[in-house]
Structures are given as structure tokens and as C-alpha cells.
């Protein structure tokens, strides 16, 4: 994703040669250096099934994006009534799109018709009413083999047209539809991933007079392009030919003809062409004489980049050498004498063992050396020479992500006085020296995600000294357990606006930690171990972010402090939209947890906080009757429950039990002291008692049952109703095949009218083995938990040191840790269990049958 961001960066750079360009692609790159932090559903508004087409449609919160997708009933183009700017129609089974079906969509600016695998025909005139459309994508429709030359009539304002990965195999069948008389404002045409193979001389003649500036024909199996093919495209600036089978001589021929005709390209993509050992010298000489500023040579094969690999290329501002299998770069390969205007150098995805001073040009603005891990067969730590960046005073963006960087020190980044963005994601960094970032006074974005920062040390303020201008900090998945208030690292970052701390080990955070962050706008604390807090965080600290994520934590209820914080964040925000997300927590919807919060909301709740709870979607995790139901629904139903009675009883019980409790506590303390003092004697007595009971009582009651004829059933099966199909298969496999075991299942073998608890106990006692079919639904079921506890007691009662163990565990799929009881966790850790394997069912039943036949 980060590399995609840089591609956009580069395009921006090549198209706009202005002095303030670096600010433009700094803004773009922030979105790729920091992860997407929105955790909610991107299309939360359900529009239902469109009756005309049968398609299912959804929309974004602001209704500006609508996506309609298909099922087997989606046979026509949907008739969307919402006045959105963007419409995406995907994965339908429509065969045709007919004239008139889009007449009501004149408000659209972007339309995408993609991945409709049965689409074969689009009728001309279909777009006649879409005067406002600026971007159109008809892509990934593999049965669409041709288009009519009048298809795009009416799209007088269309600027971008994407026809990627359809069934087109002849460029001459397409270009008549792109005539300037039909598409007068077309600037970008993408026909990549179509099997065109050849671009003949007259391919673009129908487009004579076009204003097209960018043409993409990547991955089109091209092996021939006539030298005169592009001469009609007088305004062409960007030409992308990557991943084709073109030789360097052919490319040089049409570049020379374009230069003669005055077509001044600024961007050329010849990535993935199969160039080996070194860049083709003659082609490089032609490019050096051209106006090309951005040269993309990625995914070719240049293991060693020698000093003479490139001629003097005075116009090149961007050089892309990503994934060229490079293992070594000689000292003067990118020297200013050869690349006097080089601003962007991309060397990611290679096998370089480090970054060294000799690789760098002093005038670089962006350097990407990410994903250089050395030889995969012998990985080594990535080296950064001391004072490597000492002369890189112009560098603004540095990407060293996905390298095996062991540690960084106060001399590592010396010289980067103008650096704005630094990415060290996935660097295996476990040590940050004091003053490491002190030289980077203008740093705005720092990405330290996925590094074991706290593996050997704590995070201190001295490590982050100098980051006074920092606005965005990403410390996702760094193993952080807590922050120290007496040595608050955030005091070094008073201007921070975005703080990402997701997927760490935080179980609390304090108001003192947050106090320095007065300008904080986004705080992501999702996927931690946070519990409900008892002192206000944001109200006390004065920090008021507009986006706050607490998803996937261990929050069980809303304390008064939490509600006060939420109220503080929502109040007096004007037109600012505030987002607070508590999805996927472990809310306990019971009177003891929620009643006080309910009373506070009734007495003090404002309209904004009432609306927050009414519109929320976070759900209860227990008890069973409220599982997967909205917390807001529980809060609104409290008045109809017996929480008031519970509260009164609780108050009375406090008075009744206060005095006796003190006496009881004293007695308990005394007993504990005595037990602790004589603990060695007590253990010995218990051992003797167990030994005596095991010999005498078991000899009288249990031993006779060890024989196969002493039991009514071979095994009792404990399972939840959701796993009924699996148990039915178990009955067939074990009872119908030799040695024809007899199992006990409650749906078949329990006596009608009997009490379930008594029947379970009786059946366990009458069965030689107890099979627990453990699944996620089993772990959530209260009945199954009770049966597990009963089976464990039965096992302990029978235990006398022999190899016989009546408990057999069968595990179905993965089980969420939050549903596992202490007993289940203990059993799964201490006993060998049978895991269901759909790919090897015969072996599974064979092993299970063998276990149940032991001691027979």
C-alpha cells in the first residue's frame, strides 16, 4: 500500500514542476505511511434490494457513495434514487446494459461498472444523460469483447476512462469510440490488461486532435508497436508500457519519432520488460536526450548498478528501481554529476544490505529503501552507516520500512534537518537511543509500527527529544504495556494530532499521559486490553479528539467516568463530527454493570449523549439472553426489568451484612493463618486421605464398572445444538460401523419428562467415557459449561493413578479466547484433544474409535 502511495506521489511530481511540490506529495504520503484507522463498516447504510434489478445496494454515511452488487437475481442495471456523486455496480449477472437505464443518474461524477462476468453488450447512447460524469470505469468484465464507436456519446465532461481487463483484443476496435468530438476533455485513458498484442501505425488516428495526456497499456502482451503509433497524440505526457514484451530498440524507435514530432513526454514506464544485467545503454541515451523527468525501470533485473549504468541524465527528477534484484550499488551510480536534478529515488524491494553515504545524492527530496532484507537464504541486519545522512539536508521523506534494523542511535539520522516523514515500520527495532530524533526538528510523521520497542526497555521522553513539530505518530503493535506519567514521552510531542496505539498490550491509560496532547484529533486505542476506567480521562486532561477508537478491548460496562468523558467529547463541538467507536468489546448487560450508568443518563444525559447511545451498534457479549444484542437496546429496556428491586435489595443487604461480615473476615483471616502455618501437615493428611479413599471406595464402587459390561453406554456426548450435524455424523460412524459402540445423546436417549440436570448426571455415571465436542458455540453455552464442569468432577473422582481417563475432547475449529472458562482452558492445555480435520475424516474417526475401545 505504501508503494502505491509513492506511485501517486511520483505522478504528481512529474505533472507539476513547482517549487512547492514536496508539500503536495507529503500530504498524499501521510495516508500511506499511517494505516487506515477507520474500524467501522465503510458502507453502513443499507438501501436494501433494488426491485427493478434485484441488486443489493449500500451507501456511505453521507450518501455520496453507493455500491450495488449482485447476486443471482441481479440481472439489470440498478435504479438508484439517492443523489450520490459515486456509483459502483459490481459482480452482477446482467448480460446487457440498455439505453435509458442510466437516464436518472445525471448527478454522477464517478461511475464504475466492474467485475460483471456475464456482461457482453452496452448499448450506444447509454451515457447520453451523464453530462457531469468525470470518471468512468468499465473494467474486469471479461466477456465484453467490443464496444460501439458511439458508446460514449454524451460524456462531454469525461476526463478519465478506465477499460482494464476486459476481453478486448484489437486496439483498432476501441479508438474510434475515443474521438475528440465525443470525448473532448479526455485526459487519461487506461486500457491495461487487455490482450492487444500489437499497436499498429494507425491505431490512434481516430483520436486526432485529442487532449489526452496519459495513456496506460500495461500488461497487454504487446510485442510490437509501430514507431509512428503515438504521433497523433500530440499532448501526451505520460506513457505506461510496463509488463509487456517490448525490446529496447523498438521503444527507442518510437521515442525518437515522438521527439522529432515535438511530443514531449515527462513520464515513461518501462517496468517489467525483462531488461537484464544493466539498463539498455542505447535506450538510456535516447531518454537522456528527451524531456522525460520520471523514469520507471522497476521489476527488471539489475543485480549490480555500476557507476556507468546510466549516462548523464540532466532532466530525470524521479528514478524508480524497485524490485530489480539489486544487491550492490557502486559509489557514483547516482552522483549529482549524472543526475543533477534527481529528487526522488526508489530502491525498495531489493536485496541491498544497508544504506550508505555513497548511494545518496545531496539534492534528494524522497528516498525509499524499504523492504531490503539482504539475501533471503542468509538474512542479515540492515546496516546504516554512521552519519550516512549528514549531507542530506534537502531530504523530506525517508522510507526504511520492512528492513531488519536492530537499533537506532543519536548519530543515525544526523543531517536530516528538513525531514518531514520518516517510516521505520516492521524494522525489528528493539532499541532507540536517547536523542535519536533530536536532529529532525521539522519531522511531521513518524511511523514505528510493528517494532518490538518495549522488548528490552521502557519508552522514555529522552528517546523522543526534539519532536516538537511532530503531528502523526504510529506505534501500532509495539508491545506497549503502559506509559510512565513521571517520564511522559508525549511531553516531547505537544503538537501531535494523530496517535495510533492499536494492537498493543495496554490495559489502562491515564489522564496525565494524555495531558500534553492538547491538539490531538485522532486517538486509536483499538485491539488492546483496556478495561472500563473509573477516573475521567479526557475531562481531566482537557484533551478533546474528534475521532476515538476503543474497538476490540476488554471493556465490560460504562462507568460514570466513561459517560462523563463521552459527554465532554460530544458537547459544544459545533459542526465537527465526533466519532467514538466501542465495537467488539465484552459488555456485560446486567443490572450490576449497567444500572448506575442508566440512572446517570436519565438524570444528567444531554441530547447529544442520548443520541450517541441510540445510534450506537456495540453489542452485549453476555448473559445469553442479551448476547449479540445492542447495548443501547438493553439500556432502553432497564425500566421494564427488575433492576430497581435489585438496587433496593442490594442496599438492604449491605446494612444486614456489614457487621457479620467483619466477624467473618476476622475468622477467615485466622483460619488462613493457621492453614498457612501447618500447610505441610495438611498436605500430608490430604494425601493419606486420598490414597485411602482411592483404594477402598473405588474398589467397591468404580472398579466393577471398568469392564465393558458394567456400563450402559460406551460414551456420553456433550455438545451444543449448533453442532448437531457433526454429532449425527459421529453416531453414524461409531454406532453403525464395527465394533458398533453405543453413545448417549440427550436428544435421543433422555427420558421424556425427566429433569435435564438429573438425566445428565445419570448418563455420565452410566457411561464409560464422556466426549466433549468443544466449539465456539459450545464455549458460549451456559449448559455446555455446566456439563464440562460436571465431567471434570467425574474425572477427578475416578482418578486413582491408573491410565484410564474417562474424558475425551474433540475440538471443532478455532475458539475465541474470551469465551473460554477456566476449566476449558485447563483441559485444552493439559489434555491431548482430537481436532476435526475435514480433509482427513477417515483417520479422525479411526483415532476416536480406538480411544473409546481402550480398556474394553
From TrEMBL:
* InterPro entries linked: Leu-rich_rpt, Leu-rich_rpt_typical-subtyp, LRR_dom_sf, TIR_dom, Toll-like_receptor, Toll_tir_struct_dom_sf
Q: Does the keyword DNA-binding apply?
A: no
Name the keywords, alphabetized.
Glycoprotein, Leucine-rich repeat, Membrane, Receptor, Repeat, Signal, Transmembrane, Transmembrane helix
Q: What is this protein called?
A: TIR domain-containing protein
* Primary subcellular site in the record, as a coarse category: membrane
What membrane topology does the UniProt entry give? Single-pass type I membrane protein
Q: Which family does it belong to?
A: Belongs to the Toll-like receptor family.
Short name of any one Pfam family annotated for the protein: LRR_8
Q: Where in the cell is it found?
A: Membrane
